[in-house]
Each structure stands twice: as C-alpha cells, then as structure tokens.
Amino acid sequence: MKRSKNLSFNPLKALNIKSIIYSSIILLITSLFFLIVFSFNNLYGNSKIIILSCLIFSLFLLCLVLLAFNTLMSSMKSLINSSIELSKGNLNISDIIIMENNDFKILAKAFNQLKTNLLFFIDNTKRNITTLSQVIETSSTSMDMTCRGNDQLAGSIQDIASNAQQQLILVNDTVSKINSIHNIINNISKNINDVEKMTLSSNSISIEGKESLNTYYESVLMISDSMSNTGEFISMLKKSISEITNVTNFIIGISDNLKLLSLNASIEAARSGEAGKGFSVVADEITKLSESAKDEIGKINSIILNVLENSTKVEKSITKSIDDFEKGRETFSKVQDVFNNIYDKNSEILKQVNEVVSEVTNINSISNETYLMSQKVYKFSSSVSESTESAVAVIEEEVAELHEINETISSLNAFIEKIENSTTIFDIGVKPINNSNLKNLNLAFILPGIKGSFFWNTILNGVQYAKRELIAKKTNVEIIIVPFNNAEEFENDYIKAIEQCIVNKYDGICLHGGNAKNIPSVDKAVSKGIPVMTFNADFTAPSKRLACVRPNAYEAGAIAGEIMKNKVNGTGRIVIVGNKSEFMM
C-alpha cells in the first residue's frame, strides 16, 4: 500500500494575508482617486458635487473596512498562534479568549471545542488502547494456552484413538475369552449338576447302607444271642453226658455184679449137678448178657466220650465265636460310626454341592450378563474409536483456526501499536523522560478500589496507559488496588498497603492524598529512601512527600460551569454539590 503524502500547513504564511489585504486596499484607493480626478476634470455643476460626495463616502467605507479588518486580524492572531501550536501536536494550550465579535466568537468556540474534542479523543484513544491491549494480551495468552491445550488435546485424543483401536482389539479378544469362559462355565454347570445327582445317589446309597448295617447289626446281635444260647445248651449237654456217663458206669457196675452173681450161680449149679444145669445155663446167659451189656456200655462210653470231646470243642468254638462276635460287634460299631460319618460328610458335601450349584448358577447368570455386556462394550468401543477419529479431525481444524485467530490478534496488536505511536505526536502536558539509571525502576501506584466509580476507573486507565509507556523506559509500575467496603476498614487496609510497599522496597510510591492518617507511613517510606508522590489531593497536614499532582479546582469549576451553561443554553437552575472531607473520593 502506498503511503499518502503529508499535507503541511505553514501558519506563517497566514500572517502575510494582512499585508496583502492592506496593499490591495491602498491600491484600490489610489486607483479610485485617479479615476475620480480624471472624471472630475470632465464634469460640471451638480455632477462634480455628486461624484465628490461618492468619493468621500467610499473613502469612509474603506476606512471602516480597514478598521474592522485590523480588529479582526488582531483577534485572529491568538487563533493563528493556537493553530500553530495545535499543528505541532501541542494540546497543552489555553483556550482562545472569546471576543464580542459574533463571527470570531463562533470561530473561537469552534476552535476551543475542536481542541477539547481532540483532547477527549486522544484520552479516549489511550484508554481504548489500554483496554484493547489488555484484552488482546489476555486473548493472546488465552489463545496461546488454548492452542497449546488443543495441541495437547489433539495429541491426547490421537493417543486415545490409538488406544481405542488397541482397546477394541483387546475387547474383541476379551469377548472371545468371555465367550470361552461362558462355555466352560456352562460345562461346569452341567458337571456340577451331574455331581449333584451323583451326590444325591451316593447319599441315598449311604442311607440304604446305613439301614442295611443297622439290619445286619441286629442280625449279628441275634446270632450272638443264639451263639450264647447254644453255648449254654452245650454246657447243659455236657452236664447231661456226664450224668449219662455216671449211669453207664453204674450199669457197668451192675453188669460186673451180675457177672459175679452168674459165676456164683455157676459154681452153685456145678455143686448141684444135674439139678443145677438149668441154673448153669441161666448163669451163662447172664454172664453173656453182662459181658454184652458191658461191651455196649463201653461203646456207649466211647461214644459219650467222643461226644463230650466234640462238645468241648464245640463249646470252645462257640466261646471263641462269641468272643469273635464281641470283637465283631466293636468293629461293626466302628464301621457303623464310619458309615454315620460318611453319611454326615455326604450330607455336608450335598449341602456344599447345593451351594456350589447355586453359586455356579449365579456365575452362569453373571457370565451371561458379562457376555452381553462385553458385546455392548465392543460396540461402544467401536463407536468411541470412530468418534475419536472424528474428534481428532475436528480438533485439528479448530487448532488451525485458532492459529489463524492468533495471527489476527498479533496483527491487531501491531495495528494498536501503530495507533498508539500516532497519538505520541500530541503533547498533552506530561511526557516520560528516559531512565538514565542502569537498573530498572519498580514503582508502586496505590488506588482505591471503588466499584462503579467513573473517576477512579478513568484514573486506572491512565495509570495502565502510563505503565505501557514506561516499560520502554526500564520502569515497571505495580498497580495496587485497595478494596473499599467501609471507610474504617479501607483506611486500615490503605495503611497496610503503604507499609507493604516499604517492605517490598519499591523505588517510588504514588498514592492518593487527603487522608492525614497516611502521613506517618508516608514519612516512614521517605525516611527509608523511598520517594512518595500524591495525586488528585494533598495531605491536610505537613508531610515529607516529594510532590503533589492535582487539578486546579477553580479552573475545573469554571470549565464545568461553562459546560453546564452551554448544556442548559444559558438558562435554568443548577445545584452544585461539594465535598469538604479530608479523604475526597
């Protein structure tokens, strides 16, 4: 873009207008005089009188015009001088004194208003520059943080997308494994049901075995009782056999006696002769019978002895059997206890199997739900993976747009700097000087924080603008705002703020004057080598402050009255409210 040529106005040339106009009027009078003289020589009578009267009247009018022009040019001198200063950018000039001349009065008012408007424009421009600079700085910082955050977010979402893909693969594998686990759990459930059936069958068998053992035990008790009865019977039999033996022995004794009797009878028959032959035969038969009975009794005794021996053996065997049965009863008791334990353990196992069946049923149900949930997770993971890919694309576009916005903000900041540089050509009365010190200066500016106060907000804007200008002068301004909630608390906090500035060793302190309670802290700062300045109002008592910058209340009042007069068009009732307190807000 081509730069436009600078248009300059040299006010010195305007001063030559007066000389040019004077010369033109003299030339006009001279020409008119020669014209009248020439015409007067050629005229007669009344014509000469008329021409002479016109000449005198013309000269009178020219004198009046010359006088008015001289007065006008005298009034224009202040306007021209002010224009010269204004063209140099110096706004720190007094208003033009308004004369009674209506035309010049309008021009002077217009010029004064132009200067005032220009001052307001420069002031508002500086405030706007400060506000825009803060907004741009905040926006730039936010945009930088947002860009970095979005870059990190894009990277994070890219990682999330990558992780989502890996997670999708893992979820798929997990679903397959859950399906396998689900099938295994189904098989376990079936096996547990079979175990439950087997346990129920085993429990039934153990019950039947227990009942059979009880029946067998009763049979064993009956056999044991029978064996005991048999033993008693054998004992009685032995006793009877002993008695039979006694009888046979008695019979043998009788047989021996009969044999002796038959022998005696044979002897007596032999003595009797023929008469005794019959007795001899009887005696022989008795002897034979006795011997035969003895032999049979011997056989019977042999049999009885054999029976007795066998009975003894049987008795011993029965006794042993009874002992064995007693031992068997003990063993059977133990076996019965074992069966009872088996039955109890089997009952516990059955109970636990039932619990396991219940748990396996729950696990199977949970497995089904888990399998269904895994299917949903897989679908959701697929959706998340697709969404993250879309989100990455959107964030990348947003990051590109944010970078463009950041570049635009940088361009806007450069434009603001150009505007700020343009305002530096105007002199409004106060300009910072170069910092000739080698070190950077650190100044503290203490302000009351009154919400909604146009006055203090205007002061704050001015301080913020000055802070921007002083950065280039190796000077940092720390703005300390003391909140105003109530007067007593505010006064204490204000003093604390001054004391803290002393502790922080600032190179200078600027604060609002007026409140005499701040004087001890101000004098303390000065005694420690920290200069203090007050603004807007000075202390009502002597202090060691370096200087005070404050407006002229009378001039401000006159200007305010003039503005009010113009606002009400010179008529109306006006109320002026003042403040005589030490600490004026």
Please, could you describe this protein's structure?
Among the domains are: about 30-95; about 190-355, Helix Hairpins (Orthogonal Bundle); about 435-550, Rossmann fold (3-Layer(aba) Sandwich), CATH 3.40.50. It contains 8 helices and 5 strands. It has helices at about 10-40, 45-85, 100-270, 275-425, 455-470, 485-505, 520-525, 555-565; strands spanning about 440-450, 475-485, 510, 530-535, 545-550. It has a 5-stranded parallel beta sheet with strand order 2-1-3-4-5. The protein is about 75% helix and about 5% strand. The chain is rod-shaped, with a radius of gyration of 73 Å.
Map the helices and strands.
Elements: H1 11-40, H2 46-87, H3 102-272, H4 277-423, E1 441-449, H5 454-471, E2 475-483, H6 487-503, E3 508-512, H7 519-527, E4 532-535, E5 547-549, H8 553-567
Helix pairs in contact: 1-2, 2-3, 3-4, 3-5, 6-7
Radius of gyration: 73 Å
Q: Which second-level CATH architecture of the domain at 191-357 applies?
A: Orthogonal Bundle
Which geometry do the CA atoms define?
A: rod-shaped
- Name of the CATH first level of the domain at 191-357: Mainly Alpha
Structural class based on helices, strands and sheet pairing: mainly alpha
Secondary-structure element order, N to C: HHHHEHEHEHEEH
CATH superfamily of the domain at 191-357: Methyl-accepting chemotaxis protein
Number of helices: 8
Question: What is the strand content?
Answer: 5-15%
Kindly state the number of beta strands.
5
> Could you give the distance between the termini?
50 Å
The CATH topology annotation of the domain at 191-357 reads as Helix Hairpins
Can you list the strand order of the major beta sheet?
2-1-3-4-5
Largest sheet: 5 strands, parallel
- Summarize the amount of helix as a percent range: over 70%
Low-pLDDT segments, ≥5 res = 1-15, 581-585
Protein name: Methyl-accepting chemotaxis protein McpB
Keywords: Membrane, Transducer, Transmembrane, Transmembrane helix
GO biological process, one term: signal transduction
Organism: Clostridium puniceum
